[in-house]
TrEMBL record:
Residue stretches making up the LysM domain: 107-157
Pfam short name (any one): LysM
Biased amino acid composition, Polar residues: 30-57, 68-79
Name of the featured protein: LysM domain protein
Region (Disordered): 30-87
Origin species: Clostridium beijerinckii (Clostridium MP)
Superkingdom, natural source: Bacteria
Amino acid sequence: MIRKLIPLIIMLCVFTVLLLPTTFYKIEKSTTSSTENENKNINTDMSIKPDNTTNELKSFPKAETSNKSEPNTLVSETQVVKEQKANSEIRKTDIDTSNYLSSLQCISYKLKQGETLTDIARKYESTCNLNSTIKMIKSINKIDDVNNMNSQTIVNIPENALKSGTMYTVVAGNTWYKLANEYYPEYKVESVMKFLVYINNLPNNDLPLGEKIFLPSL
């Protein structure tokens, strides 16, 4: 009986061997096709999304950027201007030369025979230069022509002011502006400059090197 079945078993084995590759190929092909279809669907979805994303990105306005930056010099200049304005605001009012001269305490002095205004000024030469002393005495006494003075002339001399000021020797780099700003910081520079120029009575308002100028005490 077994011998009769052996040929049949052999045929079944052969048949199975022949059919199995074909079956596996079909299964594999089916699986591959399914995978490819899924990939196509995915690619199709992906091909749509970039367009939508691009459109969405286009719809957003571009952020404005500026590479401009203010220079440090501009900041420094602005700070300097602010400081100058602040200093100007806390300064006192302008110096009025006429008011200053009229407010000075004076002594009365009667000229001697042959004495001149220059002779009187020399008495205060250690504390005030000749130009300033003569200018102040002439202004206070309203003297237009010194030749009209004689031994009967009485003049008012601002002795305290002539002795309490500062004698300053001009050095290189000095200007009226610098001197006004340094010695009279509580007053407006422009008015102090005019005041000093008037009191010292120098030709052309110059500041000759080595010149001794008078800085009144205010």
